[in-house]
TrEMBL record, chains A, B:
SUPFAM superfamilies: Chorismate lyase-like, Winged helix' DNA-binding domain. Residues 8-76 form the HTH gntR-type domain. The lineage of its organism: Bacteria, Pseudomonadati, Pseudomonadota, Betaproteobacteria, Burkholderiales. Keywords: DNA-binding, Transcription, Transcription regulation. PROSITE patterns: HTH_GNTR. It comes from the Bacteria. InterPro entries: Bact_HTH_transcr_reg, Chorismate_lyase_/UTRA_dom_sf, His_ut_repres, Tscrpt_reg_HTH_GntR, UTRA, WH-like_DNA-bd_sf, WH_DNA-bd_sf. Transmembrane segments: none annotated. This is Histidine utilization repressor. It holds the Pfam family GntR.
Length: 238, 238
DNA sequence: CAGTGGTCTAGACCACGAC
DNA sequence: TCGTGGTCTAGACCACTGA
């Protein structure tokens, strides 16, 4: 007997059974849950099938598994959410609106201490720096202040960023990377206020993001959004 | 031959090989990638092993798989990030600081139209409403304005929220749920400014979150944080 | 030592899409 | 029809943990 018969696959049935039990509190956080062997006997499926169910629950953060010990109901401490950071150009186009970018700066300059640390270069080393304002239907939506490691994207200064966003360009140079980010709310500085056409001190949503490709820092960006015009939405489970 | 020999498991080797190829641009977004059968031949492993590697890459958003067609390199459109939303009490205690909560409101009241819609009840139906300020070492960190569906947490009004946070209490009532959230930056309202001991109009980081348990709305909360005192940090890969 | 999870195999049947 | 991915099996060896 194999193949998905009626509604769902076997591993999904096992998974749902355990999920239901966790939701009902049948296993309190930290408590030992049934072993693979027990579930094999209970559901009459092979161990690989049970293993897949448990592995996916682990990936979702619902259970913790320790080799040689067992599977435990996860603590409730935190929940993981999936936050989708899109390329702004695509996001705007998808809304059926028009995106354009104003390039206020695109230059080579020596890194100050803070930038040097974030890009993993020596203070004073030359790095690339862009300052770009992205607009949706002519309304400023994001002020992108970005520093780039020249070793990773040597042609960065030659790119026409009115035609492609730095994010998208860098994704082409290094399609896979790790990132760290910090979200915060800040009052607009005088310069930011001027660039975004808002009042000085207005609340802004700020994302600072550093990306790393194979251990080498690629770029560090500070993305400032007018609070009244920009939100980040998402959903997650559990 | 089986078991993890030297450094890593077979499925990890297959996975890393494909990840490297994607990073180098060997397969451009949308392009067809090797089939399971090809990878089986190339690596000399079983199909289940290759399947696991591909399934995990799919879960990570690096490839897209279509039954009957093949596996494709994913588009670069977006990246998924893991944002960890912790229980504020635990977060503060973990920093070695002291958390306390000031309960400004804990009452039953009729839902207005907006709240009724978010909690899936009729306008005018009675719901629970709490307004709590959380402090770290005596400094206000979060103003939590929360509405709760009485059907899910009937004992909500009897809970002492100076001893347990609403988030943690609700996790006990419904350990597993789905959530939607919106992040934004807003100026502090007069009331928020008073509660958080900041100036009116100061930039605040706002999280609005709605959670659903088995299709039934549990709670909707608006969490307002002083921008100067609160940040959300995280990391993600790819 | 026994029990646990971690991984792997060499097959298998199925659903689906393209031809 | 053929090749694709989706799922499943009944074993297996291994590393690890705890008694």
């Amino acid at each position: 007997m194999t193949g998905p018969r009626a509604a769902s696959a076997s591993y999904l049935k096992v998974k749902q059974h355990l999920k239901d039990g966790l939701a009902e509190g049948r296993w309190r956080p930290g408590q030992l849950m049934p072993s693979e062997a027990e579930l094999v006997a209970q559901f009459g499926v092979s161990r690989m099938t049970v293993n897949r169910a448990l592995r996916e629950l682990q990936a979702e953060g619902l259970v913790e598994r320790v080799q040689g010990v067992g599977t435990f109901a996860a603590q409730l401490h935190h929940v993981s959410s999936t936050l989708t950071i899109r390329d702004l150009h695509e996001e705007i186009e998808e809304r059926g609106h028009r995106h354009d970018a104003q390039v206020h700066l695109q230059a080579r300059e020596p890194a100050n201490a803070a930038v040097a640390h974030r890009l993993g270069v020596k203070p004073g080393a030359m790095v690339f720096h862009t300052l770009i304002v992205h607009r949706e239907n002519g309304v400023a939506l994001q002020c992108e202040d970005r520093y780039v490691n020249p070793a990773v994207a040597p042609d960065y200064l030659g790119v026409d960023f009115t035609r492609i966003t730095p994010t998208r360009y860098l994704l082409q140079v290094a399609p896979i990377w790790d990132a760290e980010y910090v979200l915060s709310a800040c009052p607009a500085s005088p310069e930011e206020a001027r660039l975004l056409d808002i009042a000085e001190g207005d609340a802004c949503l700020v994302i600072e993001r550093r990306t790393v490709f194979r251990g080498v820092p690629i770029t560090w960006a500070r993305l400032v959004h007018p609070g009244v015009r920009y939100q980040i939405a998402g959903r997650f489970s559990p």
